[in-house]
Specification:
Elements lengths: L1 H13 L2 H19 L10 E2 L7 E2 L5 H14 L2 H24 L2 H6 L5 H39 L12 H21 L1 H13 L4 H20 L3 H17 L14 H8 L8 H23 L4
């Protein structure tokens, strides 16, 4: 365990963007909460809830405020997750490829650490540590941001958008944590596949990763008239959200779902029983095994 923790710390030493990028996003969200849209004292702001007619914000019921609060807490995690997806993609593509390119692999192989431990540490960093980091930062950022918004919106027509609800907050945090862990399992095969590509290709890594799937999918369509590869990649990329029935939530001026409806849509625990999730994990272990074997035999020296 100590070896694995040290290897994971090594990833953050070598790839500082892994922690600098989410911290920058968290700081930006706090700044937006502190100095964002002006809380005007002018005409009362209106919006729609659950398809009903427009309501005045200063006359919202407690139920309406809980609905708004649940939606807003859920949306605090969105920027962190989007940035985390991009960060993880570039990290797993770069981590094994770069150590061969700059010959640092010769130093790391001289240490009493196996190739399996090294690849596992990179995989765990991408699939577990970074998602949990994004979740924790979103939790802290959301709490601080909501305090700032409450202060700015007090004594304004926007005060109805900043009503704290501890019970809804606790439920949403538990739900978002469960979703983060389930999403990590769902995307494990894609992360492992990118790690395999990082270990396999000797040069022009990003060109191969972008063009090879497109070329194979095009060849499949031209020869067999099918699109199984395209469907598979699309399903594994966005299937997690599609399986949840999650649709974009409109902002002010459009209908917002109730907090209870949002919690129902965000509940990902049902995917644990999905065969696709477990088959994906089997594929992930196969990709990781190949990545370990390739790293063991290839150092480009």
């Amino acid at each position: 365990m100590n070896v694995m923790l040290t290897l994971i710390r090594r990833e953050f030493w070598e790839h500082r963007s892994l922690w600098l990028t989410p911290l920058a996003v968290a700081g930006l969200l706090v700044l937006l909460a502190a100095f964002g849209a002006h809380a005007s004292h002018g005409p009362r702001v209106t919006l729609q809830l659950d398809g009903r007619e427009q309501l005045f914000l200063d006359s919202l019921t407690p139920q309406d405020r809980s609905k708004l609060f649940g939606v807003q807490i859920g949306l605090f995690l969105v920027p962190q997750l989007l940035v985390m997806l991009v960060t993880v993609s570039f990290y797993v593509l770069d981590c094994l490829y770069t150590e061969r390119r700059d010959r640092s692999i010769l130093f790391w192989k001289s240490l009493p650490v196996s190739d399996a431990e090294t690849v596992a540490s990179k995989f765990l960093t991408a699939i577990l540590v970074l998602p949990l980091l994004a979740y924790v930062l979103s939790l802290v950022t959301g709490f601080i941001g909501y305090l700032l918004i409450s202060q700015r919106f007090s004594s304004t027509p926007w005060v109805g958008l900043a009503q704290w609800n501890t019970l809804v907050w606790l439920r949403m945090q538990a739900l978002l944590l469960a979703d983060t862990l389930v999403a990590a399992l769902w995307y494990a095969p894609l992360v492992a596949l990118l790690l395999l590509a990082s270990a396999w290709f000797r040069r022009n890594l990003y060109t191969w990763v972008l063009l090879l799937p497109v070329g194979v999918a095009y060849l499949e369509y031209r020869v067999f008239g099918t699109a199984y590869l395209t469907h598979l990649l699309t399903y594994r990329s966005v299937g997690f959200f599609a399986a949840l029935g999650l649709h974009p939530v409109t902002s002010l001026g459009g209908p917002m779902p109730a907090a209870a409806d949002l919690e129902s849509k965000l509940n990902a625990t049902g995917l644990i029983a999905s065969a696709d999730l477990w088959l994906g994990l089997v594929a992930a272990f196969a990709f990781l095994y190949l990545a370990v074997r390739i790293r063991r035999d290839r150092d480009d020296s």
